[in-house]
Amino acid sequence: MGCPEREAKLLEWILDELAPAEVRELEQHVKQCGDCSRSVERLRSVHGALMNSLTDRDLPAHLVFVPDQPKQQLTGFLTSLWRTAALAATAAVIFLGILVGGAAHWRNRLAPAPIATAGSSSASALSPTDVKALAAQEVERQMALERASVEASNEKLADSLRQEQAKSLDRMAHELDFVQKVQNNVWEETRKQSEQQGEIVQLIARNSPESKVPASGKR
Amino acid sequence: MAPLPISDRSDAALVRDAVDGKPEAFNALVRRWERKVYSYLVYLTGQPEDALDMCQEVFVSAYQHLGRLRDVEGFRPWLFQIAHNTACSEMRRLRGRQFDEALDVVDETAGRSRRSSMPGDRTGWELSELKLVVEKALAALPVEQREAVILKVYQGFKFAEIAEIQNCPLSTVKTRVYTGFEQLRKFLEP
To answer: Which of B26, B63, B130 sits opposite A53 (nearest CB)?
Structure first.
């Protein structure tokens, strides 16, 4: 292989297109051949310049991707048209329903109230005095109810207080009883201790030397 | 096990979902590849404004023909094949107008580019200048060579995949890439 042909191989080597066996062979050759060594340097310089210069370019804007194919676009358009028409029809029906319902409602609200007939109601026949009397009766009735309610409430409260008072008295009686028992116990203990002390004093007195001296020996 | 987020799923899985009628899967593919396709079209045609429209056309066409993709693992080369066809149609339509203008700009900057265009320790401004010079040098290549170089170096396709995209023999791809490199070297070397 002559060197011009080998230069093409050197480029393939730099561009990572050779099998490992060919790479080893070329490496051996380049070590011994000055021309090929210089060729490698030149090719690497060009390769380096390209690698440094050919970098990713920024897009002015991301791509706007249209996923549908033309046939699907037509189908999609017809589908969306049908869907829009259906929605519009539904909205129209709902609107009409609201309109009719609203009209019926306001017609009922705005219509005049039916006039009472002579025998249909006694309220319209009452005189002002009667009305006042009825009102006074009603007020009296309400006040009586209120009084009864207050009295019942007071009675309940009094019962509750009485119960509480009785419970308190019971508690106090129990406590007093307990205190008396304790006091009795204390007195009993004290008494026993006094008796024991008296016995001890007597015992000491009996056993003291003075008590053994004969009467004649007294000065 | 919980399913992977859509952005983490493989191209093949997204293609299958998109074919099954899930548009969000195809949208994920668009988001994943739109920059690469757009950049390829910009570098190939030199026309950013037209490239955006072409990019849109590429993805619409891809969606319409997704059901015909037999090998879902080969989505990326297939997508760039569509991009290649779209760009070729557009360039035929616009031939004689915009691309001649692009080459005129290359001629104007050619003298400056020959000062030094090889990479090394460069400042940001020098890298920007290098980028500009390389783009102009690429624009000076015949479109087939330019495309082969872009697909190889920028997009990282194998020669065999480029042959499918460009619809030509493997040996032709190798020749285009090698000749393109030689031309670029002559253009870029001081």
So the answer is: B130
Task: For residues B77 and B127, state if they share a domain.
Answer: no
Residues of A within 8 A of B26 (CB-CB) are 65, 67
Domain limits of chain A?
Answer: 3-52, 128-207
Is A54 close to B134, i.e. CB distance below 8 A?
A: yes
- B54 and B86 assigned to the same domain: yes
In CATH, what number is assigned to the domain containing residue B108? 1.10.10.10
- Do B80 and B91 have their domain in common? yes
Distance CA A9, CA A5 (A): 7
The ipTM (two decimal places) reads 0.79
Residue pLDDT tens, chain B, 190 long: 667 788 889 999 999 999 998 888 999 999 999 999 999 999 998 888 889 999 999 999 999 999 889 898 999 999 999 999 999 998 888 765 544 444 444 444 444 444 444 555 555 666 677 788 888 888 899 999 999 999 999 999 999 999 999 999 999 999 999 999 999 988 887 6
Residues of A in contact with B134 (CB under 8 A): 49-50, 52-54
Per DSSP, the three-state class of B142 is: coil
Comparing CB atoms, the residue among A17, A46, A49 nearest residue B159 is A17
Query: For chain B, how many structural domains are there in total?
Result: 2
List chain B residues with CB under 8 Å of A61.
Answer: 52
Judge: B48–A56 Cβ closer than 8 Å, yes or no: no
**DSSP labels for B101-141?**
HHHHHHHHHHHHHTT--S-SS--HHHHHHHHHHHHHHHHHS
Q: What is the pTM of this model?
A: 0.56
Q: From chain B, pick out residues whose CB is under 8 angstroms from the CB of A12.
A: 159, 174
Residue identified by tokens 């028992």 is A181
Q: How many CB atoms lie within 10 A of CB A40?
A: 19
